[in-house]
Amino acid sequence: MARVLVVDDSMYQRNKLRKIIEAAGYDVIEARDGDDGLTMATDSTPDVMVLDLLMPKVSGLEVLRQLHEKHLTLPVIIHTADIQEQTRQDCLASGAVAFLNKPSRDEDVLTAIAQALQPHDKEP
Fold first, then answer.
1. Inter-CA distances, 99 with 35, 48, 110, 112, Å
2. How many Å separate Cα 61 from the centre of its chain?
3. Given a cut of 50, is residue 13 above it in pLDDT?
4. ω into 124 cis (within 30 of 0)
5. End-to-end CA distance of the chain
6. DSSP letters along 10-47, please?
7. Domain-wise residue ranges, the chain
């Protein structure tokens, strides 16, 4: 069973995502901010991360940068209320595999997770 790390400072959002993701058969672990998320990304070996951007202590974009610096290849799905196209571009350029705006549809979250968990095709 794949393990999904949900990183969001909103307990409401974490609970909502947990219900959706667990109902689809995934194991869910949670972090309440970016600092916690970074620790759990290294200590709990999740298969994919669903990450908010606007959080206290360490922002989601900073989490992306630090994951890259630590050479962690964890697929990251951004889940944010920020609708700016520049933010989307910055996140994808920083290594995010998907960008979802809140409020998101359940099926969009699950599709993004399923796609993030698929092995990438390697060129010959």
1. 20, 13, 13, 9
2. 11
3. yes
4. no
5. 29
6. -HHHHHHHHHHHHHTT-EEEEESSHHHHHHHHHHS--S
7. 3-117
**Local structure of residue 80 (DSSP, 8 states):** E
- Model pLDDT for residues 24-44, shown as the tens digit of each residue: 999 999 999 999 999 999 999
Question: CA 103 to CA 12: how far, in whole Å?
Answer: 12
78-122 per-position pLDDT tens digit: 999 999 999 999 999 999 999 999 999 999 999 999 999 997 544
- Would you put residue 44 in left (φ > 0), alpha (ψ -120 to 50) or beta? alpha
State the CATH class of domain 3-117: alpha beta
Segment 3-11 shows an average pLDDT of 97
